[in-house]
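Format notes (please read before filing issues)

Several people have asked whether sequences and structure tokens are stored in separate files. They are not. Every record keeps both together, in the order shown below: the sequence lines, then the token lines. Line labels are part of the format and must not be stripped during preprocessing.
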Amino acid sequence: MPHLQKILASFALAFLLLVTACSPSPPSRFEQAQQESTQPKVTAVSPEAKAGGEFNRFFPQSKDVVFSQEKRGFAQAKLKQDGKEMATLSIVDLNDNSAAIAKYEDSLETVAGYPVVEVGSTGTGLLIDNRFQVKVLSRDPDFSSSDRRLWLEKFDLAGLGNMAVATGEENE
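Then the structure lines:
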């Protein structure tokens, strides 16, 4: 019987070595980068998303607001006071982004009648008509949640709401 156990143990060991030797090794970091770079890109922005430049007129009208970026479905500005960046302001077209819209479904708080959520400890977002997200992110530790909410109210939220309604009529 001990002889049979040694034979079985030898076969089990040989089988284990054969299985591990034949399994494919994970790709090297270079092979993985090559695979990722040759895969087709998925666009995160819907083709129906508004051009970023269309959002600029809805930002707060202030000399402290400096536009920094715009692209399809997105516009961003920096809020600077006394030469210091206090916050980042943005408008995002969430057309076809149901996951981002779902974050607002359970919101119990509103600003100007629109649902509001805290985004981490430094951001506050607002959703207009399940389409446009207006967000203020603190860049300075002294720029509080109440400051962010005050700046959300300075956006032309009604104008964005009208854009959302007009957009909905065009897509029907």
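For reference, the curators noted about this record: The first helix runs from residue 2 to 22. The chain has five helices and seven strands.
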